[in-house]
Amino acid sequence: MAARMFRQCPDSGLYFHKSAESLMKAHAVLGVVFLLVGGLYGLLVAATRAPGIHLLSAESFYTALTFHGTAILIFWVIFFEMAVLYFASSTLLRCRPATPRIGWLGFLLMLIGSLLTSVAILRGNSTVMFTSYVPMQAEPTFYLGLILFAVGALIGCFIFLGTLVVAKAEKTYDGSIPLVTFGALTAAIIAIFTIASGAVILIPTLLWSMGLIAHIDPAMYRVIWWALGHSSQQINVAAHVSIWYAVAAIVFGAKPMSEKVSRTAFLLYILFLQLASAHHILVDPGIGSTWKVFNTSYAMYLAVLASMVHGLTVPGCIEVAQRKKGYTNGLFEWLRKAPWDNPVFSGMFMAMIIFGFIGGITGVIMGTEQINLIVHNTIFVPAHFHATVAVGTTLTFMAITYFLLPVIFRRQLIWPSLAKWQPYIFAGGMTIMILLLLGAGTLGVPRRHWDVNFTEATLHFQFAGTAVSLLGMAVIGAILASVGGALFCLIAVGTLLFGKKLDSGASLLSSFGFPMAASSYTIDKPDPLGRTPIESSGHSDAHGAKGTFVLALVFLATFVVYFFINAKYLSSLWPMS
Amino acid sequence: MSITPPSQVIWWKEPIHSIEARWVMVALVWCLILFLWMPYWHIYGKQNLSNESYRTTPAAFEGKAQAMVNKYTVRTETDEKIPVVAPPAGSDVYLVARLWSWWPILELEKGQSYRIHISSLDYQHGFSLQPTNMNLQIMPGYETVVTLTPTQTGDFGVVCNEFCGIGHHNMLGKIIVK
Prior knowledge:
The complex is a heterodimer of chains A (577) and B (178).
Chain A: E1 6-8, E2 15-17, H1 18-49, H2 58-91, H3 100-122, H4 140-169, H5 179-209, H6 218-229, H7 231-252, H8 259-272, H9 289-297, H10 302-324, H11 333-336, H12 343-366, H13 380-409, H14 416-442, H15 465-498, H16 546-571
Antiparallel strand pairs in A: 1-2
Chain B: H1 18-44, E1 53-55, H2 58-72, E2 73-77, E3 82-85, E4 92-98, E5 101-103, E6 105-108, E7 114-120, E8 125-130, E9 134-138, E10 142-148, E11 154-160, E12 172-177
Parallel strand pairs in B: 3-6, 4-7, 6-12
Antiparallel strand pairs in B: 1-10, 2-3, 4-5, 7-10, 8-9, 8-11, 11-12
C-alpha cells in the first residue's frame, strides 16, 4: 500500500500521519469537553463551599463534587494524555501509528465508559466521590464505565508501545528515542500498572454492586484503589514533565542539560512513584508504622528526588539555551528576557513553578507519616492536588494546546491577546484559591463538606473565624480560575471553527478525509529523524545554569522551612501513641 | 533537542553538567533527612500513630461501647439525650462512628491518658478532633486504638471528615476536657 499518509507542517516542521492526527484530534477534543463540563461543576462546588454563597443543596453539592473529581482527574487528563501518546510516538518519531483501527476501538470504549460513569453520577444514584470508598455503594454502571474507560486507555498505551516497535523496525529515527518520547514511555508504563491495579479492585467492586459478591474489605479496597487513584496522577506527572521538555525544545531550541540525568529521573518515577498508594493510608487502622514509613518513602523519597531533578534540569536547559543566545547578564537575564507573552512558555513555566513550590512541597508534608495526622482529609488535600493537577498538569496541557492548535488544525489562534493573558488568569486564580485552602486546611477545615458551620447538627462546634473566612475568600480564586479555564475552552473551540486558515485547504476534518479533494497528505514516507548535532563548545561555564541553581536553592530553603514549621505544629498537639 | 534523538546512541555516555551533579547530591541528602525524620519522630516525638488495631464487627463494637456507657454515664445532653460518659483515667474508652453521629460524648481529664477505641458501624468516617486538628481514618470492621493525653481544657468538636452520605455535614461529636 503506497498511500500517501503523511503531511509536514510548514511552520513547525513536524510530520503528521493522517490516522494518528485524527486520533489525536478526537482524544484532545473529548478531553477539552470534559475539562469544560468538569470545570463548570468545580465552580459550582467552590460557590457552594463559600459560606456566604452556599449555592447548591447538600445533595446536589455532593453529586457535583463527585462529578467534578471524576471528570477532571480521570476523563479530562487521560483523554488528553492519549493524544500526547500519539503525538510523542507517531509525530515525534515520524512513524505510522500501529493498528489505528484498534485505536478507534480504544477511543470508543473510553467514550462509552466516560458517558456511562458520568450519567451514573449525574442521575444522583452514585454520589460516592471520586474515591468511591466501600461499603458506600454506587450503581453498577458507575464502576462499569470506569472499567470500560480503563480498557480503552490500556489499548491506547499498547498502541503507543506498538508504534515504538514499528518506528524501531522501520528505522524512522536514528539512535535512541528522544527524551520527550522517553518521558511519554514512562507515562505509558505507569498507566499500564495503574490500569491493572484498577482492574484488580474495580472488577470485584462491580460484582459486589451487582450483588454477586457479599463483601469488599474497606482496608484492602483503600490499599489497592490508591494504586489506581494515585498512580493515575503519576501518569500526569510523567506526561506533563515530558511536555515541559518539549516546550523547552519548541520555544527555545533547548537540548537537555544531560540525557543521563533527565532519563534516570524518569526511570525513578517508574520504580518509586507508581506504588505510592501508602501516603493515602497513613492514618488507617490495620497497617503498621514500619510498612507506612517504608512505603510512603521507599527509604529515601527517590520519587521526590526525581521531581526535584526535573525541577532543576527543565529550567536549566532553558537557561543554557538562552545564555547561548546572548542573554548572559547576571543570574536572571535569561528568565527576564524569556517570551512571557507567549502562552506556550508562560503557561508551562508557571505550571512548573506552582507544581514544584506548592504541589510538591505540600505533597511531601502529607506524605510524612506523623505529619499526615494534622492534614488527613482536611481541605489541605484538595488544595495540594489543585496545585499538582489543576495547575501542574492542566495548565501544561493548555500551554501545549496553544502550540498544537495551529500546527494540527492549521488555523491561527483567535484572540491572541486574550490567549496571552489566559495562563496568568488561570494560574493566578488557582494560586489564590490553593493558598487560601491550604490555610483553611491547616486550621482543620474538612474536605468534601457542605456546611462547616454545622447549622443543622445536633451538637455545636465553631471553627476559628479565620478558617471560615479563608474558605469563603477561596471562591474569589475559584471564579478567577474558572474565567481562565472558560477562556481557554473558548479560544480552543473558537480557533477550530473561526480561526484564520493557515492553509487554504485547512479543514476540521481534513485528516478524516473531508473534503476529499486536495488532500494535504502528500508525503509517502518522511526522511528519518536525525540525532541532535554534537556541540563543539561542550559545557563551558559561560553557558552554565547558575540562575537555575539559585532558584533551586530558594526552593530547597522554602521546602526545609515549611517542613519544620509543620513538624513544630505537630509537636504542639495532644500526645498520642 | 528534547524532541530529537540524543547525540550519542548510548545516552548513558553523555556527560553530566556539574550543576546537575551538585543538585542531585543536595536533593538526595534532603530526601534522606525526610525519610530519617519519621523513625526519629517515632523515638523522640510525642505524637505517633498507634500500631494497635483489631478486627471487629459492628455488633461487637457497639456492645462494648454500650457497656461503657451503662457504667460511666454522668448525665445527658440535648433533646436527644446523648449520654456524657466520664470514664476513669487510664481506662478503655469507646467512641462509635455511625450515620451521622459520634457517640457518646466523652468527658476526660486534662493530663490523664485514655485508651480510645474507635470504629464505624456502617460507612467509612473521618475522626477529626477540632480545633486541636488530629485526624484519623475510621473504618467498619476495624477497631483503632490510640492512647490520647489531653493537654488543654474545654469543649472539643469531633468533625467527620470522610464523606459518608447526605448527612455527612451534620455528623458532629464532642469531647469535654476538664
